[in-house]
Amino acid sequence: MGADQGMILLKQKKGGVTMKRMLISIVAMIMVFTLAACGSNNNNNSSSSSSPSKEVVSEAPATTEAATPADEPITLKFFTALADRANGAGKVEQDIIDAYTKENPNIKIEVEALQDEPYKAKIKVYASTDAIPDIIQSWGQTSFIKPLIDNNMLLELNAGDFADNNFVPGAMDGFMQEGKVYGLPRSADFLVLYYNKKIFDDNSLSVPTTLPELLEVSKKLRAKGINPITTNAMEGWSLPIWFEYAAQRENGDFNKIDNVLKGQGTFSGDADFLAAAKDLQELAANKALADGFLTADYGTSRNLFGQGQAAMFVMGNWEAGMATDENFPEEVRKNIGAISYPTSDKGKATDVAVWFGGGYSVSKNSKHPEAAIAFLKYFFKPENWAKQVWQGGAGTPAQSFTDYLTGQESTLQKQLVDIFGSITSSSGTPMHDMGTDEFKTKVMEAHQKLFGKQVSPEDFLKELDAAVALLK
Amino acid sequence: MHKLLSSRITIFWLVAPSLLLFLVMICLPIAMSGYYGMTNWRGVGSYDFIGLANYSKILFHDEVFWRSLWNALLLLAATLLIQHPIALLFSILVTNAGRFEKFFRTIFFIPAVISIVVTSKMWVSVFHPNFGMLNKLLDGVGLSALKQDWLGDPKLAIWCIIVVVMWQGFGYALLLYYAGLQGIPKDLYEAAELDGAGRVTLYTKVVIPLLTPMVRVAVVIAVTACLKQMETIFLMTNGGPANTTQFVGNYIYKTAFSSSLYGYGNAISVIFVIICLIITVIMNKLFSKDVGEF
């Protein structure tokens, strides 16, 4: 009996110790996990506050009279690639947002803005965690929008809702898949040749209008120690569009590149494509491109032109604001002009590489889709975006804007609107944006090598074909 | 207290947080990278399991990857053979600079204090073919023939990058050797002088051998820095022209985030981790020899 009792006591004691140990263990575990959780929270906070994205919260002063009890407060997340909120298109965007939240005090719009490349990287992070913000900037280009549509992440929009917004015919095409609309275009973009008239006048040269003249003028400028043409070859996206021009000027048809991408024919073996590649390489071989252009990013190349160090600048129409940019010396600002790419006997100045650039889409997961669409309707009212972006000289809207011509436009703006108004054939979406991101990288690298004279025109076309093969 | 600390369970729970963090933050991501490396994931949406296809493509067909690795080795060689001897020499000079010691110490360390973004962008401007200081300087001294498109020329660009990275890291290397020199007892110098050793003998036979522990630290830091190199490249050339200045870190970033080949990017990072482990093992073997006490 006594022994038994002793055993039981012992067992109890043992049990007590195990209990105690278990308790300690559990407490320790809880501490570890709460500590870890706190740590990760802190990390989140610090990373969001130190990240370079600019978070601007637009909130109207809460006027109790204006807000009826029925208006539940709604917060919309707005993710855009117009990172500069104080100038150009980004300012117009922010102004419209501010005006909207003022009119609708119950709506709060949280803006997150990043530059193009970081934007595209972050949208993938959002997509992979299924956390796409309510309204996002999207591009009506396969490389960007197709994966999002295919994975059911974008809300289908009703084109009828936006019938009053005067979109230019065909502007929504890039945002459509199987007849459904997934986005609204913001602007029409086209590539032009900007020139600095003063440099041409000072050296008694005339602005080139044909391809042979372009080469000739470039040689003469180079002989005088002036950089002829600059562009942002480090990022590389202007080069494939330039090649589209070069190819059109050889074969007279922008569609031929699109056909090759669809699998009809190849780049190599086509005499016109080869001639186009040779034209470009001849420019490069004659040093028509600014010194160091391959490592010049957007800002550097724009600056080179704006500071009067290069005579021409191959860039999109959205740079109309250069004519009023106070950072550039007045003698340059006042003398900037723009022409369509120089012509040949097959390609005219009215054949323009034009496409619809950025726009907006609504997330399928949005908690307030109606509010998001209501905002887009407001945004695209002709007197909002179309008028303000045009009059601000920040680009060419994808909506009809002839009502808003003021007559006060700079000469540069008038030249650009003339080019835009005279278009007879257009290139559509730039070739590098018509596939996956991998395709895009390969195409841009092939162009960088062509302009950098690291491949022959023949090999360049082979590299393009290899890139196209990735699409199948 | 001693009893508590000697308990295995206590020790286990004290180690657990950091062990857990290590597992969750380092081992788990690597394992997941290994898995994603076997898929054709493009960042958005579904993906297929494709086995070792990515890995074999990297090892046998990816020229850019090998070029990136080669560039890292080139940078490492330059760091060890050029930067470190100069840093050692300068640290000896600084130690003997008398009243200018503090002054020089500060001057040489300045590049290491300034943000990499600032110094990288500064060097981009220095190398700029038109308004860059380097070409202007060559013009000024009548050597216009030597003017180059420094960062745009595929043959030159990598060397320009190497110079910049060495310049950025010079301060740290100098500081390490300087600290090492401070740690050598003064009586050793006196003893050597009494034994009739000249300046050169003093340094080559006594001081530098005693610096070996510091050399090890410096070499390890140099190896990791060279392999990890990313920010200077990203800011200066982004690997261009035509990937001639590509480094593995930047290449992984470009593959995953610009080309959206997340599966492939993960595979590169896993292979890179393995290469780094191999290098670490080799370094440990080389450094296992002991220097002895002093």
Could you characterize the architecture of this molecule?
The complex is a heterodimer of chains A (472) and B (294). Chain A is α/β, with parallel strands linked by helices and 472 residues long. Chain A folds into 2 domains: 54-185 and 358-397, Periplasmic binding protein-like II (D-Maltodextrin-Binding Protein, domain 2); 189-355 and 413-469, 3-Layer(aba) Sandwich (D-Maltodextrin-Binding Protein, domain 2), CATH 3.40.190.10. Helix content of chain A is 45%, strand content 15%. In chain A, strands 1-3-2-4-14-7 form a 6-stranded mixed β-sheet, with helices on both faces. In chain A, helix 7 packs across helix 9, helix 9 packs across helix 16 and helix 15 (437-451) packs antiparallel against helix 16. Chain A is globular and about 80 Å long. The N and C termini of chain A lie far apart (85 Å). Mean pLDDT of chain A is 83; it is low at 1-17, 35-55 and 58-69. Chain B has a domain at 62-260: Orthogonal Bundle (MetI-like fold). Chain B has helices at residues 2-6, 8-36, 53-61, 63-95, 101-113, 116-127, 133-140, 157-182, 186-194, 199-210, 212-228, 231-236, 248-258, 262-286. In chain B, helix 2 crosses helix 14. Chains A and B meet through helix 1, helix 3, helix 4 and helix 15 of A and helix 2 and helix 13 of B.
Q: What is the CATH H-level superfamily of the domain at 62-260 in chain B?
A: MetI-like
Residues in helices of chain A, as a percent range = 40-55%
Oligomer: heterodimer
Radius of gyration of chain A: 29 Å
> What is the CATH H-level superfamily of the largest domain in chain A?
Periplasmic binding protein-like II
